[in-house]
Amino acid sequence: MIHTFRNSIADSEKLRALYQHCVHDLKLPGDYDDLLRMAFIYCLSALDKLVHDMVTHHMVEIFAGRRPPTPKYLAETISLESHSALYGSGVPPAEIVFEGIVRRKFAHLSFMDPVKLVDALSLIWPESQKWQVIAAAMGRDRSETVTELRNIHKRRNSIVHETDRGPNTDLKMPILAADAERAESFVSSLGETIFTLI
Predict the structure, then answer these.
(1) Model-level pTM?
(2) Which of 101, 60, 108, 59 lies closest to 81, judged by CA?
(3) Which of these, 183, 163, 55, lies nearest to 109 by C-alpha position?
(4) Nearest 5 degrees, angle CA 34-CA 35-CA 36?
(5) Which residues neighbour 137 within 8 Å (Cβ) at sequence distance 6 or greater?
(6) Which residues contact 11 (CB under 8 A, 6 or more apart)?
(7) pLDDT (tens digit per residue) in 108-154
(8) Which residues lie across from 165 on neighbouring strands?
(9) What does the alpha-carbon distance between residue 190 and residue 147 come to, in Å, rounded to a whole number?
């Protein structure tokens, strides 16, 4: 799962490099800022996928008895239909069925917002001061770390849901290669840190 995350961050970096090549090396006419916007989307999607994959994997490990359960894991509910499938014939094995149940349950959820991210991690990580521990491991301040992720998430939402246009104009918000690079660097560090801690 960490390799997929790293590859997705690399895809984001390639989009930024393509922007640099078109604008600064080839000096092509036109606006290539959407490449930077796509880089924002890619790097944050990489984090979302990493959290989904980690939560699913470790919940299966808890289910199989190879990892201790967290209070949030123990409080999680599944439907009676899922329960029947889980304790049915034994083919496929219960762990495989459980993984499918978890993936379906969380498929429509996003874990890019700071609150939702640590809520998801509560399913597999009993640490009570998650952002404090994550920020310290990154060598950063807790509040600044949460704010940074929240701002990147807001910009991603503006790009995805509002075509990155100002609320009172039809003009796209300005974006710089440095903005995309900063988002990539932060998200890469955050994802690597979470993976290492858990």
Answers:
(1) 0.92
(2) 101
(3) 55
(4) 85
(5) 193, 196, 197
(6) 42, 46
(7) 999 999 999 999 999 999 999 999 999 999 999 999 999 999 999 99
(8) 172
(9) 13
